[in-house]
Amino acid sequence: DAAVVSAAVSALTTLGRREDDQGSDATRALITLASEPVLRPAVIAALSSLPPRRTGDLAAGLRHVSPAVRCAIAEALGRMKQPDASRALEGALDDAASSVRLTAVAELKHLGTRTSQRKLMQVARTDPDGEVRRAAMMAVSRSERSTAADAVEPG
């Protein structure tokens, strides 16, 4: 039942906000739920809404056996817009699965930090997957265009 699933995700999200071990346990449970394709969008939204203190628990999900779960974690980290989450996301650029690297590139493109730009440039030059290299190059060039546009004084 969809209502029961929604209530469970909501309850786990509430628990995930706690400062104690139950918060960590709830975060790990949400990560596990990301393995279910039908639940993934709700789980990504839930994980990305957790407080910054859960970033380490969330980043641990980047070691999950499933590339689909690692992609979901990368997406949630990108939505957090926190420095520690961004650093964890940069680590996903080294994932064995090209789908995870591609997701990390997409999320880092939206964040646009200087450190991320350096990592993306490296990925654009060295990633073994052509699609990932192209996406990284597009992310870097988009960021460079945005930076140049911001530097132009209105006339």
Structure description:
With 155 residues, the protein is mainly alpha-helical. The protein has helices at 2-16, 21-33, 40-48, 55-60, 67-80, 83-91, 98-111, 114-126, 130-151. Residues 147-153 have low confidence and may be disordered.
What is the topology?
Blueprint: H1 2-16, H2 21-33, H3 40-48, H4 55-60, H5 67-80, H6 83-91, H7 98-111, H8 114-126, H9 130-151
The share of residues in extended strands comes to under 5%
User: Which structural class matches the secondary elements?
Assistant: mainly alpha
Which stretches of 5+ consecutive residues score pLDDT under 50? 147-153
pLDDT averaged residue by residue: 90
Radius of gyration: 17 Å
Number of helices: 9
Number of strands: 0
Distance between the termini: 58 Å
Overall shape: elongated
Largest sheet: none
Helix amount:
over 70%
Give the helices and strands as they follow along the chain: HHHHHHHHH
Which key terms come to mind for this protein?
elongated, mainly alpha, 155 residues, 9 helices, disordered C terminus
Nutshell version of this structure?
The chain has 155 residues and is mostly helical. The chain is built from nine helices and no strands.
